[in-house]
TrEMBL record:
Swiss-Prot/TrEMBL catalytic activity: [(1->4)-beta-D-glucosyl]n+m + reduced acceptor + O2 = 4-dehydro-beta-D-glucosyl-[(1->4)-beta-D-glucosyl]n-1 + [(1->4)-beta-D-glucosyl]m + acceptor + H2O
Descriptive protein name: AA9 family lytic polysaccharide monooxygenase
Signal peptide as annotated in the record: 1-19
Biased composition (Low complexity): 365-395
Region of interest called Disordered, as start-end residue ranges on this chain: 365-416
Organism field: Paraphaeosphaeria sporulosa
Compositional bias per record (Polar residues), positions renumbered to this chain: 403-416
């Protein structure tokens, strides 16, 4: 089925800002380890969401500031599911995880280390547990799938993996500007201790940074996602790892976590900070001294609070205020609420999507038996991933309707035949991001809007002309049962700082697609495709690769043919 590309226009980008994303929290088997806890992320909250674009930098391993460990290490069981959550606003999980304008693959890597806190991350030892790129059948990138899954990227650890400390590294790569060789990497490292008596080790590892991982100019980071060739896209990095038994396990087995445990004396945990109860007191001097200790601890809490915020620090400050209030009231017996735990209860989530490893994850069966008695017998280490399906090449064939720009008059018939949509109002709404409300703790990353080459933004002729009615179009024009003012298609956007678009469209055919105007610069060819006609004979546009967000466009369909209105909003 061909999908006429109608109604497109492209235009200049508005100066804009854009929020990117931060790997903010690790869930182990669905249980939160606490926002920011055990995670190496860029320290400056204002810059934590910035992408990495220098592939030779050590920052590629665990992000800026990532060569230094944080205080805590999350315990993980053999075969656990790790879930990494990305957030555009790390201190506000109710907001979006990643702007829809980011398209690209994802992956999870692990590195076995002697110390999860001391290892600098950068260097050899990394192996890939899973990756995911583009799905031609659904026209979705991994980023789309993750955004649909609340920004959560999950991976099951292969059962029987050698126990000990690891750095676990989620990765998302945004390709919207990769035409220029500037793919944006978003990463971070979770420090974990794997409680396992298994002995599986990866057969091979790569260095991050390094050319076996990724280097500038490689097709995985220099790729145009706007020309209909996404099915050919190869994800960055090595293949998904395969595993073998470590015959030397006895000599380096780490069976007990000794570092990075949250002390039981911690009554308040904020990311990697821990607040301890102040000394009990029974006189005025003691009261003020404990108050001061409280504030001293709290100051550190605020100073160390990562992008995920200081909500626990605030609870701590309230505690300190309460102590001081007692001193002022000459109630010198305290502290009040002694020992009360201020750490929020750990949230448990429904993990949702788990992307299985493809093209790897095999466990070599005939390898030497582990020497250590501590090592798990093979039977306890089932080859979890041996059945990973090979990709059928056919699944990756580009769909003709994604690559072509059919001319409307000759192709309408094909979609008219397959009405599959029941919306009676508007069909598709693209919204520009409204980032006017970014919190001060995490200001949006983008400051400069690329200049647009006017030629790149010429509206396509089929977008601006009023096509004559062909005989095939007549079939749906015969049954218009809607008002001529119902918008057929609208692009809304450019309203950075202005969340309410000025169109009347309400209902969408598919989840809205957002493309920040700033990033539209990278999009040479706006394409969208009408795929079906609803029962009212309206063209339903459900697929887009690139969307113009700085224009509002209405199209009205009348018995007389197409008409459209375009409103530019800069
Ligand atoms: C796209 O990449 C070029 C460098 O290749 C850079 O100058 C430009 O700022 C990037 N644009 C965006 C929107 O990231
Ligand atoms: C794992 O094995 C598969 C074959 O089953 C292979 O294609 C892949 O390259 C291997 N992974 C690595 C990292 O060598």
């Amino acid at each position: 089925m061909k999908t006429p590309s109608i109604l497109f226009a492209a235009l200049a980008a508005a100066p804009t800002v854009m929020a990117h994303t931060v790997w903010s929290v690790l869930y182990v088997d669905g249980e939160s380890q606490g926002d920011g806890a055990g995670i190496r992320m860029r320290k400056d909250p204002a810059k934590a969401s910035f992408p990495l674009v220098d592939y030779s930098s050590d920052d590629m391993a665990c992000n800026v500031d990532g060569t230094k460990g944080v205080n805590f290490v999350s315990p993980v069981k053999d075969g656990s599911t790790l879930t990494f959550e990305m957030r555009s606003w790390p201190d506000n999980p109710s907001k979006e995880s990643l702007d829809r304008g980011h398209y690209g693959p994802c992956a999870v890597y692990l590195k076995k280390v002697t110390s999860a806190i001391d290892d600098k991350g950068a260097g050899d030892g990394w192996f890939k547990l899973m990756d995911d790129g583009y799905h031609a059948d659904t026209d979705k990138w991994c980023t789309d799938r993750l955004i649909d899954n609340k920004g959560r990227l999950s991976v099951e650890l292969p059962k029987g993996l050698e126990g000990g400390y690891y750095l676990a590294r989620p990765e998302v790569v945004a390709l919207h500007n990769a035409t220029n060789g500037q793919a944006q990497f978003y990463t971070g490292c979770a420090q974990i201790f794997l409680e396992s008596t298994g002995s599986l080790v990866p057969e091979s590892t790569v260095a991050i940074p390094g050319p076996d991982y990724v280097s500038a100019g490689q097709s995985s980071v220099k790729f145009n996602i706007y020309v209909g060739k996404n099915a050919e896209y190869q994800v960055p990095g090595p293949a998904v790892a395969n595993f073998t038994q470590n015959v030397n396990l006895a000599s380096d087995a780490q069976l007990q976590q000794t570092e990075g445990l949250v002390p039981s004396s911690c009554i308040a945990q904020s990311a990697n900070w821990c607040g301890k109860e102040v000394a009990s007191y029974s006189d005025e001097t003691g009261c003020w001294a404990s108050g001061e200790d409280c504030w001293t601890q709290g100051k550190k809490c605020w100073a160390e609070a990562p992008a995920t915020g200081g909500s626990v620090c605030q609870l701590w400050s309230d505690k300190c205020t309460a102590i001081n209030d007692q001193c002022k009231a000459k109630n010198f017996n305290g502290p009040p609420n002694k020992g009360k735990v201020l750490t929020p209860k750990r949230e448990t989530i429904d993990i949702g999507l788990i992307i299985k490893p493809v093209g790897g994850g095999n466990i070599e069966s005939g390898s030497a038996a582990p020497k250590s008695s501590a090592a798990a017998p093979k039977s306890s280490a089932p080859p979890a991933f041996t059945s990973a399906p090979a990709l059928a090449p056919s699944a990756y064939e580009p769909k003709s309707d994604m690559t072509e720009t059919p001319n409307p008059s000759s192709t309408h018939a094909s979609f008219i035949e397959t009405p599959s949509f029941s919306s009676t109002v508007s069909l598709l709404t693209f919204e520009g991001g409204a980032y006017g409300d970014a919190p001060s703790s995490a200001p949006p990353a983008f400051t400069s809007a690329p200049a647009l080459a006017p030629s790149a933004y010429e509206p396509k002729s089929d977008a601006i002309s009023t096509p004559a009615l062909s005989s095939t179009q007549a079939s749906f024009i015969e049954t218009p049962s809607f008002s001529s003012t119902v918008p057929l298609l609208s692009f809304v956007g450019g309203g950075y700082g202005d969340a309410s678009p000025s169109t009347s469209t309400k209902k969408v055919a598919k989840p809205t697609t957002k493309v920040p105007a700033s990033e539209y610069a990278a999009a040479p060819k706006p394409t969208a495709a009408a795929e079906a006609v609803d029962e009212n004979g309206m063209v339903v546009v459900t697929k887009t690769n690139v969307v113009v967000v700085t224009e509002t466009q209405y199209v009205t369909l009348t018995a007389g043919g197409y008409r459209h209105k375009r409103h530019r909003r800069y």
